[in-house]
Amino acid sequence: MSRNILLRCWRKSVKIPDPATSLWSKIAVQKLVLLRELICDPKHGSSFGLFTGESMLMVVFGAGASYDAVPSRPPGLHSLKCRMPLANELFDDRPEFVRSMSAFPKCKPIIPYLQRNSSVEDELQRLQAEAEEYPERYRQLTAVRYYLQHMLHQCEYQWSLEASGITNYITLLDQIQRWCKGRCPVCLVTFNYDTMLETALPTIGMEIRQLSDYINREEYKLIKVHGSINWVREIGTEINTTSRDRNSIINEVIDRAPNLNITQRYQIFSDNPMPVIGNESVLIPALAIPVQDKGEFECPEDHLNALCKCIPQVTKLLTIGWRATEAHFLRLLSQGVQRDIRVMSVAGSAKGARETLTRLEQKGVKGQFIQTNGGFTDFVTRRDADGFLRS
To answer: Quick one: how far is CA 311 from the chain centroid?
Structure first.
């Protein structure tokens, strides 16, 4: 049976030939009917490898997704100190955050800027620009990398205890699996450093054990464009580690930050605290400093290549807890999507969703824009995604 004929009959609803009036045999027609039924059945379709780039769902997660990831603890009803922070809360004076700051004292001189400024990303952008003429900023921002990794590890652990294994990520992936399996591939993109999304992936039969697991499946890919709390990069600069403790090595990395060669070699670990020594080199957290206009992403090159291949295929875009302010990603999206698409935004309120959609439209994304009223918990419990996913 020709694969091309099968695809045409499936995708274009070509009428099955009548063996009495065509050259097709009765057995061939029966096989075609059976194969089409199997392909159209979500339980079997993806196993045929028939995704041809005609459509793709992309789901983009921002900080608001993990902030509202526990359905039993929605924002507004529960004000919890263990809730995953939004961008402007990353340097709050929560006791757990302050303890993490104290572990990396080089970051302390810039903490007041980050606590008092209305936009953490703008302030970090300013501090990063100052590093060119004031190298101490490199050391302070490197300390911020270690702080973010340490603090978010602790915060996610406490937040996961509140969740008791039940999160909106898990429910959303179940909804996506129901409507998209066998119909279109899915690219998950997250700007979050935490691993709550990875923890939910077994819902769709996906587990992350090594970096290639993020992108090696046809039906699902996960791209973490800003890095992850369980990723590190190797430092190419030689640092003596003989008979030295963890803190001593970290302090040297921070002190030598202006002149370090940080390679593109990434590793993934499940340890907490994260190791600082790899097989042959010292390691540094693979986290992008959260600035407004990042010139590059903090992820392996093959992950970025996978993202660039996915973007032109996107026909539906769902954003959750993402404000659409990352200029570099917006450029990729607007340049790569060359057709009208359907876009739905979940941002905590109708106003927030409308602002996200407006930014996307201003950057050149075209199509049908759908705003929701509510956050991640409202979205999944009301099944607001069903109509969008099945269309």
So the answer is: 14
Coil, strand, or helix at residue 62? coil
Residue 387 phi/psi, 5-degree rounding, is -65, -40
pLDDT tens-place string over residues 334-348: 999 989 999 999 999
pLDDT in tens, 249-275: 999 999 999 999 999 999 999 776 778
Closest Cα partner for 98 from 255, 195, 107, 125? Answer: 107
The token duo for 169 is 């990520």
Q: At 86, list the tokens.
A: 């939004």
User: Cα 159–161–166 angle (5° rounding)?
Assistant: 90
Which two three-digit tokens encode residue 372?
A: 């929701």
Q: Coil, strand, or helix at residue 185? A: coil
C-alpha 151: how far from its chain's center? Answer: 19
φ, ψ dihedrals at 228, nearest 5°: -155, 150
CB atoms within 10 A of CB 42: 14
Q: Work out the pLDDT band at 6, boundaries 50, 70, 90.
A: very low
The residue type at 158: Q
Whole-number Å distance between alpha carbons of 66 and 102: 25
Q: What are phi and psi of 20, to 5 degrees?
A: -75, -25
Place of tokens 């902030």: 67
371-383 tens-digit pLDDT:
999 999 999 999 9
The CA distances from residue 270 to 16, 47, 229, 230, 279, in Å, are 52, 30, 10, 6, 16
User: What is the Rg, in whole angstroms, of the alpha carbon atoms belonging to the chain?
Assistant: 23
Contacts of residue 110, Cβ cutoff 8 Å, sequence gap at least 6: 127, 137, 140, 141, 144
Burial 313-347 (b: 16+ CB within 10 A, else e): bbbbbbbbbbbbbbeebbebbbeebeeebbbbbbb
